[in-house]
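Reviewer 2 asked us to include a model.

Predict the structure of this chain.
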Amino acid sequence: MQTLPPIDWGLAGRVGGSTSGELPVLSRPEAHALVASLRLAAQRAGELVATVSGMPGQPARRVVVSDRATWARGATGMARAALDGLSLPGPSGPLRSLRAAGHGAIAGVALGWVGRRLLGQFDPAASTLFLLAPNILQLQRTHGFVMKDFQLWVAAHEQTHAFQFSAAPWLLDHLVQRFETIAMDDVGALDVARGVLGGRGLAASMTSPSAHRALQEVSATMTLLEGHADFVSDKLGTRHVPTVRRLRRAFTRNNPPTALARLIPAIDKNAQYREGLAFCRAVSIRAGRTALNGAYESPEGLPRPAEIREPITWLRRVHGTA
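Predicted model (structure tokens):
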């Protein structure tokens, strides 16, 4: 059985904050105005998402407009809670503290890298929406986006995640169970070699059939969640964000997959955004945008991996129509 790696989360948060890079230059009054405008954008986005999506959920209970270091500390709490929720034993032994420090430093560097690029994040366990003010401002300045439009569009994406998880209170546990299956997987080098020689492919051979299936299901669900959030923010934007077409063009997410994503396609985030948005658009055209809400009624309503590229199949299975 696998064990949880020891991680010094306090160190991870400190390292993440210290490696977050330079911040955009702005005065104190400008900083206060930026925080206030993002809070207002999050509030308005929550109200508009409810109308546009038709979902029975709720907006985030808490909105945190943060800098990168504050987000890094919050992200360590999210990661720690997620790992603690897995039914895996913790390690022991005299080197535990040293290993925890090493893993904490590595996790902190990763948080620092992510924190320079992330615009927002929703924590479903705490119903908390994070908006990273310096990153939103920096991207707005770089591309010349209309600030009011950009803020509302980003906030709408994150608030849609809040509605998704509150409309489907079973969803977080559903994902955790599959992460647990993946984390408990124990495939040896001989098993990988046998799988490759047997024609399963390297990515599939690196996991057992059950863990591979769980990974595919997680990928399909995350594709739905990200694509649906983009879909709702775009639909909302057609009436409330005058520059929405320009924003969508800037976020086409056509970057080629990383080496790791080529090895394990299920973790290709750019593909998840693109394919999820295409799935939601296709469903909306054929059955109306509220048909997507069927995905959140029960685990059986979630699109299966093959259905992401065949939305008609999902419509037939879940709604009995195409």
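The first strand starts at residue 62 and ends at 66. The chain has a mean pLDDT of 83. We have added this to the supplementary material.
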